[in-house]
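Batch manifest line 380
LIGAND: NAI
JOB: complex structure
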Amino acid sequence: MSAAASALSAPASAARIAAANASVLPARVALLGTGTVGGAVLARLNAWHGTRLGERLSLVHVANSRRAAVDRAGLAPERAATALTASDRPSSLDDVAAALSWDGLAGDGARVVVDATASEAVAERHAQWLAQGIHVVTACKIGQGTSLARWRAIRDACARGGSGYGDSATVGAGLPLLRSLRELQAGGDRIHAIAGVLSGSLAWLFNHYDGMRPFSALVRQARDAGYTEPDPRDDLSGEDVRRKLLILARAAGVALDAGEVEVASLVPPELAILSKDGVDAALPALDVPLRERYAAAYKNGEKLRFIARLDCGGDGRHTARVGLESLPGDHPLAGGAGTDNKVAIWSDRYRVQPLVIQGPGAGAEVTAAGLLDDVLRLVG
Ligand SMILES: NC(=O)C1=CN([C@@H]2O[C@H](COP(=O)(O)OP(=O)(O)OC[C@H]3O[C@@H](n4cnc5c(N)ncnc54)[C@H](O)[C@@H]3O)[C@@H](O)[C@H]2O)C=CC1
Ligand SMILES: N[C@@H](CC=O)C(=O)O
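JOB STATUS: finished
ARTIFACT:
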């Protein structure tokens, strides 16, 4: 596969098989994670009940970190959460492929794992499922946004398994960012640079922070609204944005290593060392440093924005960094509201004025919609 053709759309053979089966067989779907995003996936599937979209998918396995509910004849999405609570079956990633299999059933249709977890153990399995011919659709960035070796394993597994990897929800919560990068390259463009706001929660925080309310109170609000990672330090440290920039860079043809991204964290050391349980009480450690950053920006008439930058370099020398920047109020990347991501892409055809993509970049509903769009694309 070329860099532009992605790991991430179904190779032609998988698409043909899916198309051939689509009219007769619903694709079998396993949903991993029933938290903020996974819960919204169930709600969206439920809203499709009795529609043509709903008929294309059959939910056969639902799991959280503790329990799993399996029904090879299909679980009703509105009853999946209750079935999970009532289930005494422990959650095991070893069971997922078997639950999706068509053994003993009439037909041989598409199989899809939807990853709505933030789990390293689940991400570690992506390549294995893909190599078995199971499509993987993920909101979790740990698959493609960490080591280059894992990113390559995912691409190779897609090729071996004739399967597809749906990653739209990993950057921009389903905004057409990765798709646009791939389409530009498919049309012959080289990507020159990417810059922008890639974190919905940090966008929301800096769109709302006015130096008056404690920053920590806003972090709690963003977490309760479902915008942050399960551990908000993953956002505040820049780690979530680093992963997104790695995913974008690799999709843009730059084999960027995680260590090549310069990351300026907002998390003070005393907060960084705590266990997850201790984080909430210690969030006020953010308040003084952020108030000082805000005051300095305000004095200059500027706005704070958490920006990711990639310069692809014409000579193979790329640079990448993420961190808080103080931007003039009328700077193009300073605009936007709510959780808006705003990303500028420079390429052969957009040399001077970049292509700019903007829209909500976090939140359960948009993310669930992005995931299920990918599922439908892959199953044909
Ligand atoms: N919240 C948002 O706006 C967005 C989130 N995402 C990504 O979506 C993913 C999920 O985020 P949230 O729903 O906010 O997290 P959450 O903490 O609310 O839910 C995570 C779920 O995963 C389950 N889980 C953990 N390990 C598991 C395992 N081994 N097997 C099965 N289930 C397991 C947990 O039990 C829980 O149900 C994260 O990777 C996040 O980065 C992506 C785009 C936007
Ligand atoms: N925590 C993430 C959620 C989406 O990826 C963010 O804030 O952008």
